[in-house]
Amino acid sequence: MRTTQAAADPDDAPRAVTLPADWDDEAAAALARLAPGRGPARLAAEAGRWVDDLAVGPLAPQARSLSCLLMLRQAAPTESLWTGQHDRRPGFVVNLAGFVQPGSGFLAEDFVAALRLLCQVLRDVAERKAALRNGELPFPDLAPPPPRQGRKAVATPPELHLAEPAPVAGDLLLSNLDACLAALGLDYDSDAARDVACSLASLATSVAHAGCGAETLLLPPARSAAPGSAVPGLAETARTVWRDAAVETDTPLPRIETGFSAPGPIDALLGAEACGLAPVFSPLRPDGRLAASTLARLTARGLTPEAAFAAALAGESVLPLPDAAAHGAMHRALAGFVDRMPARPDPTALPLRARLALDRGVRRHLPARHGGFTQKASVGGHRLFVRTGEYEDGSLGEVAITPAREGPMTRGLLDALGQAVSIGLQYGAPLGAYVDAFAYTRFGPAGTVEGDPVASYATSMLDYAFRALSDAYLGHKLPDAPHQDDLTDIPSPMLPLDFPETRGNTPSRRGRLRLVG
User: For the CA atoms of 335, 338, 342, 343, what is the dihedral angle to 10 degrees?
Assistant: First the structure.
């Protein structure tokens, strides 16, 4: 075990986090997010809470098995189940790469045993916590959906069209598919990899649907015999599970739905290199070292890291990385083998900057770890800091303006203004509208700007801050306003001030200056 300092958010104070020595800092940050409070967090204590909550009654002897699945980084409860939020549907995230053992391949029997245990726990939790679950409104006027690809088409009598859907006890979410394929020596963008992925998804769905009635089972995948040489025993295990589950029952169990995970702290805690079915787009870990999937693929090619580095220096393409087309091909291959698929990747969609104009009214939060810059400057001898937060595409999503030595009221007002602007940006408001509103506002402190060449004189801290944002994110460097000494001929400070148009990159809408106060 090791103890490190970690925080769920860069703006939070770090806290002591104790976890296994071979778990990385990403897992430490995830545990800091999952653990309540702000004090020290220990993996054993935090996991013990949900284990004690789930393994009760007849499931008490399974507490050790649940703990082992976590310590082996094979499975963990979803964030809501980990934190005891039983008003939401429970679920488990299953790390596919955790069931690959070097020299032995994919541990199919262990995988099936783990899924059966998780399904048993989910059904028990759904029964015990049913009073806490948020209800789902039925839609009696809708006909049942058509059967998915690979599923048996079952004729439904007309009188059953108005029946409420069968209850769903929980979710099994598969993750880290690409790292699993890499450990098996398979390239993500290959037919063999897609065959194995379909077999794994079909196997998980067959286990999850066992006991729910034969009509809920997928047909055995037509390609399940193909990966027999790549993953010995997987096809036979899948067919055995399907035969055992394809039985009629008068008392069907609540359904367990399968799908793929989304980015979150549980994937980081399990060491997933890429959540769900997405490929690993980078050969490096966040700390700069080679990722486990990269090492596995080099080993499959008979290369050491040193040999691969030498070949890369020589200009060879040692390890081609999957692209968006490979991601889409995997998504199409897996459709129909799980209950819920994530959104289909579309590389031909509009760029993110263009899509933002269509998504106004829906807030898009910044990721927990994001880029940005901190600018230290002074206006009229008064120091301030301008901090920004950026989305993955580099667009602005957060602003903070912090004066260094101003009074509590000034600091509070600027902080509130920064939060208001940040919320507006996250809802899709254009930055240019804020620049129009706050650039060239006039109130003290004002004067010479030091520490940032974007301006030499500012009429207020807001004037400087939003002109700096305009230069950094809009590409418009706005000119300085006339100094106070040049404004003696103005009859009223509340009237707009005309100043000469400037040539170059100054927008024409800057021809008038609004005076405030």
Answer: 30
Tokens of 493: 């400070």
- DSSP run (H or E) holding 386: strand 382-390
Q: What are the structure tokens assigned to 363, written together?
A: 């807030």
State pTM to two decimals.
0.62
pLDDT band at 38 (very low <50, low <70, confident <90, very high): confident
CA distances from 233 to 88, 105, 162, 182, 239 (A): 36, 9, 43, 18, 10
Q: Do 386 and 377 contact (CB within 8 A), yes or no?
A: yes
* Separation of alpha carbons 263 and 272, rounded Å: 10
User: Contact at 8 Å (CB) between 216 and 88?
Assistant: no
pLDDT digits (tens, 9 = 90+) for 247-272: 666 777 888 999 999 888 999 999 99
Count the neighbouring beta carbons within 10 Å of the beta carbon of residue 456: 11
Asked if residue 78 lies in contact with residue 171, where contact means CB atoms within 8 angstroms, the answer is yes
Cα 355 from Cα 257, distance rounded (Å): 31
Token pair of 100 as six digits: 């690959």
> CA-to-CA distance for 264 and 345, rounded, in angstroms?
19
Determine the average pLDDT of the residues in 414-433: 89
**Which residue, 154, 266, 271, is CA-closest to 219?**
154
What confidence score (pLDDT) does residue 509 get?
38
In three-state form (DSSP H/G/I as H, E/B as E, the rest C), the secondary structure along 165-223 is CCCEEEEEEEECHHHHHHHCCCCCCCHHHHHHHHHHHHHHHHHHHCCCCHHHCECCCCC
Instruction: Give dist(CA 236, CA 244) in Å, integer.
Output: 12
Taking CA 203 as the corner, what is the angle to CA 199 and CA 204, rounded to the nearest 5 degrees? Answer: 120
Contacts of 412 (CB under 8 A, 6+ apart): none
Q: Max CA-CA distance within the chain?
A: 93
Strands 382-390 and 457-458: unpaired
Read off the pLDDT band of 226 (50, 70, 90): very low
How large a percentage of the chain has pLDDT more than 90?
Answer: 21
Q: How far is it, in rounded angstroms, from Cα 123 to Cα 183? A: 32
Residue 374 has phi, psi (to 5 degrees) of -120, 120
* Residue bearing tokens 């066992």: 210
- Res 465: pLDDT: 92
> 192: which 2 tokens?
């063999």
Give Cβ neighbours of residue 88 (< 8 Å, ≥ 6 apart).
80, 133, 134
Q: Which pair of structure tokens corresponds to residue 220?
A: 């055995």
Describe the strand order of the beta sheet including 255-260 as a list of residue ranges.
75-77, 91-95, 168-175, 255-260
496-to-491, 493, 499, 508, 517 alpha-carbon distances in Å? 11, 8, 10, 15, 12
Looking at the DSSP assignment, which residues form a beta bridge with residue 378?
Answer: 383, 450
Q: Return d(Cα 264, Cα 274) in angstroms, integer.
A: 11
Terminal Cα-to-Cα distance of the chain (whole angstroms): 60
Minimum mean pLDDT range among 123-137, 292-306, 319-333, 362-376? 123-137
